[in-house]
Amino acid sequence: MHVIVVGAGPSGLVLALLLAKANIRTTLLDSASTVDDRPRAAHYAPSAIQVLARAGVLEDIRRDGLIPGDMTWRKVNGDKITGIKDVAQPWNPDAMTVLPLNMLGVVLLAHCEKEKNIEVRWNTRVVTVGTDEGKGKGWVIAEVGVEGGLKQEERFECDYVCGCDGANSQVRRTLFGNDFPGKTWDAQIIATNVYYPLDKFGYDDINFIIHPEDYYMAAKITKDGLWRVSYGEDTKLTLEQVLVHQPKKYERMLPGNPKPGDYKLLNVGPYRIHQRCAPSFRVGRVLLAADAAHLCNPFGGLGLTGGLVDVGGLAECLEGLEKGMAGDEILTTYDEVRRKMWHDVINPVSSSNFLRVSATDPDTAVGKDDFLTMVDEASRNQKVRDELDQAMYAICHDFKQYWKKPSQGGTQVSAKL
Ligand SMILES: Cc1cc2nc3c(=O)[nH]c(=O)nc-3n(C[C@H](O)[C@H](O)[C@H](O)COP(=O)(O)OP(=O)(O)OC[C@H]3O[C@@H](n4cnc5c(N)ncnc54)[C@H](O)[C@@H]3O)c2cc1C
Q1: Per-residue pLDDT, 413
Q2: What is the pLDDT of residues 86-144, one digit of tens each?
Q3: What is the pLDDT of residues 235-284, one digit of tens each?
Q4: Is the pLDDT reported for residue 415 higher than 70?
Q5: Where's the FAD-binding domain (predicted)?
Q6: Could you tell me which of 158, 173, 205, 305 has the fewest CB atoms within 10 Å of its CB?
């Protein structure tokens, strides 16, 4: 089998590694000249850690990254509302792990480059994709060339095309045009990376500050003390206005009311935030996964976590096909199950995470907000804490259960949704 993965972002690279382990040949096509270095994901929940372990990269991620300690919700004056001790479950082999996306990309690419079954082609912008029913093949047309240089079109053929090309996916647009149902929040999130010792002010490794205007998330993201501070801004502000406003925002909302000389700011990245899911994750021989298939706001870190769980499932489906243990219909099951997970879990949970920090009264949050009430209870009741820990796996799904069993005479078990 030969699979073309569009997009060598984290989801595409992990999918290629999983397919290589199943002896499936993969060609990765990416429009950029190397891995993306924007400040985005950093926290990967246990469900994603299981996939990274299967891809054979967890040891290197743990070598470069960190396992966070406590997670706390606070008022804007820093007072603790409630929290989860050792949120990562450090006793668990799937413990949540933190590594900024740019560093994750480097680790993943190094592993891909060692695999003889993986070819990565940069400067290759996919324009359109489709299925040739007659031949039983997928195809891709891409513009190939160096940025700013001469470009020429090239046609690729394969057994399956997997669109892992991010939020503005050209693969998704080819299949559905601008049909990407959902909503865009009336807020922009400014993701900053900064050296400022928030732990000296009593902050824990992950902090959510609840406030109608100055809500933010502050988390330690590297071993050498780099912090991610992601805060909300009015959508009307341009990038220039965001940059001008940033020192005032920091001084007003961070503990110690720091002025520019008190911290070292590395990045400022504005992002519009969305809750959107594609109408289907499968059309013929073309599949969608991760941000190409669905989006959610970053509070709670469900974006790439959900994307990695997608590619973990998709790899199991393609491996089943390669081994003759599954029929083509397993890919329809992939579409149905992963879309349902987004609608039933990722969308409602990530939406509540955002509303909890931006539209909840911090004085009554424990009591009125069901999740924070549970978090508070978990600090006193181990059974509730176990439920909380188990909820980290709610988006997982084992697609190998649909592989044919010899006793079933070749009939695939169908999904019960
Ligand atoms: C501020 C912020 C914080 C976040 N924090 C977290 C977090 O802590 N945990 C978490 O799980 N998630 C988080 N997320 C979400 C996470 O960053 C994304 O879900 C993740 O990066 C998506 O990965 P991807 O591989 O699907 O897409 P991308 O990372 O967007 O990669 C897509 C790739 O496709 C390529 N591409 C695009 N178009 C084409 C084309 N036409 N042809 C060829 N190649 C193309 C691009 O060059 C790119 O390399 C956060 C997001 C933001 C904005």
Answers
A1: 57
A2: 999 999 999 999 999 999 999 999 999 999 999 999 999 999 999 999 999 999 999 99
A3: 999 999 999 999 999 999 999 999 999 999 999 999 999 999 999 999 99
A4: no
A5: 2-345
A6: 173
- Unique residue bearing structure tokens 């601008």: 178
Which pairing describes strands 2-6 and 160-163: parallel, antiparallel, or unpaired?
parallel
User: What pLDDT sits at residue 405?
Assistant: 74
Residue 292's CB: how many other CB atoms inside 10 A? 30
E-state strands within 246-336? 264-277, 282-283, 286-288, 294-295
Pocket test for ligand 1, best of 38, 296, 304 (most atoms within 8 A of CB): 304
Pocket of ligand 1 (CB under 6 A): 6-12, 29-32, 36, 40-44, 101, 125-126, 164-166, 170, 189, 191, 230, 271, 290-292, 298, 301, 303-305, 307
CATH for 2-182+275-397 is: 3.50.50.60
CA of 330 to the centre of ligand 1 (A): 26
Burial of 393 (0-12, 13-18, 19+ CB in 10 A): middle
Taking only the tens place, the pLDDT of each residue in 285-314 is 999 999 999 999 999 889 999 999 999 999
